[in-house]
């Protein structure tokens, strides 16, 4: 993060934290009126790991996790649950540079306990669980979905 201009850091924070705060504030009052609702914030394993390359991104993703915890405490009495999903590398357009390179992909697959990168459906299934009755007693949590990357050090 050293050497990162303030305006670039502000842009990362704006895109990854403030936007989640704004969107939550748009929907939470109506959820409170209904006494029911679910907010799911997509964070990243970057929020629980340090990085010499993506430090500002990682800081913003850690803040997303704390935002979910705080909102869960604030809105829980209204039967609103707030959680995060923290994916590892998933085959999306956003992460294309990390999986489209055969050498990088092979390294990632070799060092991931499940031996593969994530598929969008892997993350979607967690969102379905969190939004459904099956996840009705889960709030303020971050579910890590990374194929085991964070357990291997």
Sum this structure up briefly.
The chain has helices at residues 6-34, 55-75, 96-99, 102-111, 120-131; strands at residues 37-42, 80-87, 142-145.
Describe the protein.
With 153 residues, this protein is mainly alpha-helical. The chain has one domain: NAD(P)-binding Rossmann-like Domain (Rossmann fold). Helices cover 50% and strands 12% of the residues. It has 5 helices and 3 strands. A 3-stranded parallel beta sheet has the order 1-2-3, sandwiched between helices. Helix 1 runs parallel beside helix 2. The longest helix is centred in the first third of the chain and has 29 residues. It starts with 5 loop residues before the first helix and ends in an 8-residue tail after the last strand. The model has no long low-confidence stretch (mean pLDDT 96).
């Amino acid at each position: 993060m050293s050497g990162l201009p303030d305006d670039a850091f502000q842009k990362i924070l704006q895109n990854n934290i403030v936007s989640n705060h704004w969107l939550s504030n748009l929907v939470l009052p109506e959820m409170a009126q209904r006494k029911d609702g679910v907010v799911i914030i997509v964070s990243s394993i970057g929020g629980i790991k340090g990085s010499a390359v993506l430090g500002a991104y990682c800081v913003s993703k850690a803040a997303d996790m704390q935002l979910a915890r705080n909102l869960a405490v604030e809105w829980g009495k209204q039967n609103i649950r707030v959680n995060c999903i923290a994916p590892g590398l998933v085959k999306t357009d956003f992460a294309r540079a990390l999986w489209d390179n055969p050498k990088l992909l092979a390294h990632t697959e070799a060092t991931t306990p499940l031996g593969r990168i994530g598929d969008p459906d892997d993350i979607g299934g967690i969102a379905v669980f969190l939004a459904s009755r099956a996840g009705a007693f889960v709030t303020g949590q971050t579910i890590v979905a990374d194929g085991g990357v964070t357990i291997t050090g």
